[in-house]
Every structure is written in C-alpha cells, then in structure tokens.
C-alpha cells in the first residue's frame, strides 16, 4: 500500500553502463542478482551505513574504493537481494571477496575493480554456487537499456520499483542521470541509506563527485526515516562514466540531487505498511542540528506516527514529541502548522486551533508538518511515513 | 492483554496517609479523581519528567517542593486521570494552582502544601467545576484503608491496577511500604516515569529520602521502556510519614526499592499491546552509560520488538540494533544469549546457534536477553515489551 507511488515506465540508458539481472539467490519467482558493468574511465563514489556492524560487502566496497571512498578504476558491481551477507564474519568476508573475483574473471578485470552489494535477511550465508552461476548468466547478456529490470531485481520488501531519469543540456550535449534504489524498512537517517545506484554519462572528477555526493546525501537519503532502524548494508553509489562530456556544472549537480531526492521520497512512500507520506519541516533554528533533532523526535515517535495513521488530531502528542528533542531551542517559542492550519503557538494550543480542520488535514495521505523554533535562520526537512498495523504484520508475521 | 499480571488483592494502609477517590473528570463508569491526605510531620520527595514541556501540575509540584525537590510540609496530593492538563499554558497553570487552593481549603492547610498531578490526554483543559465538586466529595470520605481504590482511579489505558506492599521489622517495629502506579504507553527511561506514589510509615529525613529516591529511580522507573516516548506528566512521589519509627535502615531502603521495582515491572507487563515481558541485561561494559545505550538500542528497535512479538528467531535484527548503539564497545567482542541459548559470539553467529532452540525461547511470554560487551565490569538491565498490532490499534483507533 505505497503512498501515491507508481513504478517508472522508462529509465534512460547511460552510455558506459550495461546491466543484466537473473534469478540466483532465494527468490522463487523473480530476479534477485544484478550485474552492472562500467566502461573504463568512469569515476565512482560511495557512502555507506554508519551501523557498527557493516556487512562484509560494505567492508569490501570501502577497501576497493580506498580511503577517500572514490576510485577511478571500478569496472563492475554485483548486487544481490534476499540475503544481506551481514553478521557473517570470516565466511561472509570470504564470500564477498570471492564474488569480486568471480565477476572480475567474467568482465576481464581485477577483483579490486569490483564492488559487491547485498540486501535481505541478516546472518544468513550466500549460496555461492548459485551466485557464481548467476553471475555467469548475467555476464552473457549485459545491455545498456536494462535499468528497469535492475530496479526490480534489487527489491526486498519493496512493493514498487524505484527509479528515475533526468536529462540536462550542456553546450548542445545531452547529459543523462539515471538512478535506482531499494528500501522499505530498517530506514533511518544519520547514515547513507539503503541501496541506491545513480549513474550519469557526464565526466565528473572523482574528488568533485565525492563532494557532491556528501552534500546531496544529507538532504536526500539521510533526510528520511521509516522505522528508526539503520541497516547493516546501506550503500549509495554514484557513477560518472564521462561518455557525454564535462559534467562540472550546477545543472548536472542539480539533476543528480533531483534524482536522489526522488528516490529517497520513493523509499518513504513505499515504507513498510505506510499509508501516508509525512514531510516535517523545522525552521527558525539557531543551528541545523537542532532543527534535525526536533524533526527526528517527531518523525520517530510511535505515538505521533499512530496518530497520523488514524488521522486523529491528538495534537498533544506532537507537543510531547517536540519536548523530548534535545538541542538549542526554547519550548515556549515553538509554533506548529499542519499544512496551513495553525496548531501550536508559543508552546501551547494556537488561539485559532480548530480540531475539525486539523483532523481533515491529518486525514489526507500527504501531510506537511511545519514547526517553527523562532530562534534563527536554520532549517531542516525530514520525510517519514505513518505507523500502521500493516508494519507489524510485515515484520512480525514472517521473515522478510 | 497484560503479561502475567494480576491486580494486587491487598494494599496495606500507611499510618499518616488517608485516601479517597471519586468520579469527576471525564470517565463515565469509574473514579478518576483521587485525594491523598498526609498528616503533619511527613517528608515528601519527588522526581519528574525530563520532557521539555512539563505539564503545569509538574511545574507547580516543582515549585511547592522547592529547589531540592523535598519538602517536610506537604499535606495533600490531588491526582486526576483522563486529562493531563499539559500544553495548556497560562490557563493550565491557573487550574493547577487553583486545585491546590481548593484542596488546601478542604484540608485546612496552605496551597503551597498541596501537590497536583494529572494524567490523560494532552492539551485539553480540566473541567474545574466538576473537579472542585469532586475534591469536596473526596475530602468528606478520607480513610486509611483505601489504596486499592486509588490504584484503580489513577489509571488511563492501563488494563490492570498496579500496587504492592512490603513490610519489614526494625527493633520490634513493623515498617510498611505501600506503592501504586499507573502507566501503559508513552513510557521510556531517561526521566522519572509516569505516575507513581510510594508511602512508608517510617521516619526518613528529607535529604536522605531524596537521595534514596534518586538512587532507586535509575534502576526501576528509569529502567523500563514501552514505546520510547517520554510523557509530559511523569511524576514519582515518595512519602515518609514517620508514624512507625526511624526508617534510616538498609532494610527500609531495600523495601522501598523493591516496591518501586515491582511497580516498574507492572507497567511494562501492562504496556500497551504487550504480549511479552522482555528483560535486556547488558554486562561487561567499560562504563554504565555504554551498557544502557546498548540495552536501549535493542529495547527501542521496532524490528527487534516485532520479531519478539512473532517469536521469530530473526537474530540478525539484534545485531543490527546493537550496531546502531553509540558508546564505548568493540562490535567484534559482543556476545548474546536468549535465556541460556547462545546466539551471538564475537559479533557473529555463535557456533552452537540453533534456530529451533532460539525460536522456542522467543516464543515464551517472558524472555531474558543477555548481551556481553567483553570490556569491563559495568552492567545495566532494562525491561521492555514487544510491539504488536494491538499497540497500533490502541493508539491509532481512538484517542486514549
């Protein structure tokens, strides 16, 4: 029951990137292993989970990308769904390294030029024989126009495929950005989030690519939360193949940022059990960290999230949640609107508060909550979803 | 569906404390206003919510108890359920002060000798006319043996009344400790929790009473979590009437601590929607704060809590949750058992891990999770419950 989310109908190919997917891991009825082959000369940059148990594939990615998390020499990605290869210690590390060797042999490069990604159940081992045969099948059918199939093959509990393309013109050249992502539960900011792969055919030097990625991730993948849990496997890769000319332009950066923002929002719209998309904007803060702390306190409160699910104007729960946030703000100066309907003023009920109007706004499936701190010029925006009985069903009824 | 929780059948009266309850606020079929009258000469100590929007009654309590949160001159408590009188600004503060004046007139003391307490829906005003008439009815029927009725009248979403008495002998004297509490949702440590009232007939000097209370609260009411939300009205009062002789003995302190530990556990057992009581013990930490951070990360993870609800041995979720904890520990040294069944060793699956055995333990309605950090001698224990669809129902289906 994703919130107003349709799958992409077209994803533009990126010159220099070929893809293939196959069924190899544990799914009975759909592809769950994907290979992404990158021509020589591309730059690649990655950000990864801050969880203290990074999965072996994340550890291998960090090693192969080097200390600065960028590498101009990456030639292939191997991405599997169904099993996260996390918490698997030495065996998991061996399997992740082996997957690089296998794909390197097939693509004619070295193992250090391959990056592995896994998502799914934690603490189960990869079925390496099936995995190897799957890589072989993929290597035999790599094509440029295959992003839609890849977007589907990387899903776990996702109900809708997530992808988007943007094109911009630079001096008569068309530059294309295409991105795909998966993620539905175990989603929380303060990290790089879930699996997301964004590629452009522009040429972008590795240090610039990494800088753009760090800037963009804070306002996109790090600005969403579904359930407050941070995955062991979160990875976001940015690839620039350089086939379509120089990409060092603001419009290219903006196109990449737009693709990331769209994918991040898709993940919230498809949040496990979500029936509503909730945007929380906190402004007037004396610093950005305070704005984020207030937004997160509201976004992560189960009592706020269940009131949102019910469309219940139980507005005291918002006050309670804001009051549990740390940071530098004066509780008595806080204001809150839902859309344009006033709720809180100076830390109490707004004199024009109207329960019927507020309930009508909270009954909608896309809700904007605006919180003013009245202290300064900083702001932060977080996207989250409501907490429904369906979330419990998904996570308590069977192992996803 | 409280977890193995029966109401108390007997609560011993405390010499120097008389109680009465009546229906006055918003309940249609049960008492929701309670008066507790204290004889002159008692000492009283309180701890209160750390939420940044403390309700007006909490503000009044702090003022009347003074800077050191103790007062040897308190003569009465007025406690209502149904409406929290929180987020009510000037009107709420006026109402809380007025309730003190009203009860002071009835008991023949000054308003500063009264403490007001409210619990229920946030941001609704108290019906002061009904409230005043209710106080009058209570004042006319105060008796010593009335703790059971009070335990029932302070409930909101609680499904079982919570109370206990302990008695100890000191030099031939019998010292009695009786406590009652309410709380079911909006329960999270890092505060003083919910409403709890514990009285003894021992004589305990105010500074000692306050010191005992601070020590005890950390291991009892601050060591539980239901949903990670901290209420605006949490208050825990400790009253020593001095009628039964000197209480400055370890056995008295232990009796008070035992009453508090029991009440805290009752609150978790009656946690909204709870089907399991889960005790999380973290040991081997280099400091207590790290132990608490790890315990809280596990206790507050919705993915751990839904796996516990399902009795699903999806043990990777525990690894994920521990990995999201801050603090000073080495992820690769972490071990975990459920009861005596090994699960994690050195940050990965234990070599003797058995999914069937683990699932059998997780299917029980009382579960002990033991996490070792392998770094030092500190430890911490937290009690929590699982997250079920019933929690969503309670909090999304209607306003509690």
UniProtKB/TrEMBL annotation, chains A, B:
KW Acyltransferase (keyword) present: yes
Enzyme Commission number, as recorded: 2.3.1.35, 2.3.1.1
Matches recorded under CDD domains: OAT
InterPro entries tied to this protein: Arg_biosynth_ArgJ (IPR002813), ArgJ-like_dom_sf (IPR016117), ArgJ_beta_C (IPR042195)
Metabolic or biological pathway, per its Swiss-Prot or TrEMBL entry: Amino-acid biosynthesis; L-arginine biosynthesis; L-ornithine and N-acetyl-L-glutamate from L-glutamate and N(2)-acetyl-L-ornithine (cyclic): step 1/1; Amino-acid biosynthesis; L-arginine biosynthesis; N(2)-acetyl-L-ornithine from L-glutamate: step 1/4
Site annotation Cleavage: residues: 192-193
Pfam families: ArgJ (PF01960)
Keyword terms, alphabetized: Acyltransferase, Amino-acid biosynthesis, Arginine biosynthesis, Autocatalytic cleavage, Cytoplasm, Multifunctional enzyme, Transferase
Assembly: Heterotetramer of two alpha and two beta chains.
Function: Catalyzes two activities which are involved in the cyclic version of arginine biosynthesis: the synthesis of N-acetylglutamate from glutamate and acetyl-CoA as the acetyl donor, and of ornithine by transacetylation between N(2)-acetylornithine and glutamate.
Protein name as annotated: Arginine biosynthesis bifunctional protein ArgJ
């Amino acid at each position: 029951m994703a919130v107003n989310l349709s799958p992409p109908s077209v994803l533009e190919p990126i010159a220099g990137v070929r893809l293939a997917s196959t069924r190899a891991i544990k799914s009975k009825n759909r592809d769950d292993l994907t290979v992404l082959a990158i021509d020589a000369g591309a730059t690649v940059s990655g950000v990864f989970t801050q969880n203290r148990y990074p999965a072996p594939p994340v550890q291998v990615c960090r090693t192969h990308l080097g200390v600065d998390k960028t590498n101009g020499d990456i030639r292939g990605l191997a991405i599997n769904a169904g099993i996260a290869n996390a918490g698997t210690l030495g065996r998991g590390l061996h399997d992740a390294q082996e997957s690089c060797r296998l794909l390197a042999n097939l693509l004619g490069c070295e193992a250090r030029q391959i990056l592995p990604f896994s998502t799914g159940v934690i603490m189960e081992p990869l079925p390496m024989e099936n995995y190897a045969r799957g890589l072989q099948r993929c290597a035999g059918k790599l094509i440029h126009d295959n992003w839609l199939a890849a977007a589907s093959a990387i899903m776990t509990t996702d109900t809708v495929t997530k992808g988007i393309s943007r094109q911009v013109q630079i001096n008569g050249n068309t530059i294309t950005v295409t991105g795909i992502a998966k993620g539905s539960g175990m989603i929380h900011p303060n990290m790089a989030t879930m699996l997301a792969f964004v590629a452009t055919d522009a040429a972008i030097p590795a240090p610039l690519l990494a800088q753009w990625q760090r800037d963009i991730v804070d306002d996109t993948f790090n600005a969403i939360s579904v359930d407050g849990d941070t995955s062991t496997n979160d990875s976001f890769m940015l690839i620039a193949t350089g086939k379509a000319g120089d990409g060092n332009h603001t419009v290219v950066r903006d196109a990449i940022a737009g693709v990331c923002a769209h994918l991040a929002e898709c993940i919230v719209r498809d949040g496990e059990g979500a029936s509503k998309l909730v945007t929380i904007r906190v402004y007037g803060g004396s610093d950005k960290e305070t704005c984020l702390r207030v937004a997160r306190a509201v976004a992560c409160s189960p009592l706020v999230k269940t009131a949102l699910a019910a469309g219940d104007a139980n507005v005291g729960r918002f006050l309670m949640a804001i009051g549990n946030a740390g940071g530098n703000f004066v509780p008595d100066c806080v204001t809150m609107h839902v859309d344009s309907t006033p709720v809180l003023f100076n830390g109490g009920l707004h004199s024009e508060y109207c329960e019927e109007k507020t309930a009508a706004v909270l009954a909608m499936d896309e809700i904007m909550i605006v919180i003013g701190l009245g202290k300064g010029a900083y702001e932060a925006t977080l996207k989250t979803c409501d907490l429904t009985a369906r979330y419990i069903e998904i996570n308590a009824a069977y192992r996803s």
